[in-house]
């Protein structure tokens, strides 16, 4: 094999490998708590079958849809996350309200996000993740006293070593990282 044909074979093989790697679901980056893959637009990751399926597929639970919406949001696909949340039958859960708050806040609608977070807190005052996100929203608004209240509450819920405490504490110390 000549050097030129070896290079061509390498490029072709590399392209094939890249295509095979990127043809399946992609996992959201940046949140260790979310191991749900992110599928291409119009699909949802079915936790039962462990593969991407059309969103209209039957028998996708509200929990599955909520988890997937969160994965979309963590992947920066906020509008799609909100659309997925809209497909959930029970809109009035702490988790759904929290994820809706997260996606709207990330879209720059901080006050709207806070309203969802506060509804979520009312439903489940011990839900540390919503308190983290509420605190981050307060940091964005420059309301550090309210963010620190959320940090104090998270400490009471899960201590100072839990991810929610550490993430909010880091946001308070370095607001530009949110």
Automatic annotation (TrEMBL):
Segment forming the signal sequence: 1-28
Residue intervals passing through the bilayer: none
Record Pfam families: TPR_16
Annotated InterPro entries: TPR-like_helical_dom_sf, TPR_rpt
Superkingdom of source: Bacteria
Keywords: Signal, TPR repeat
The protein's name in its UniProt record: Tetratricopeptide repeat protein
Source organism (scientific name): Rhizobium anhuiense
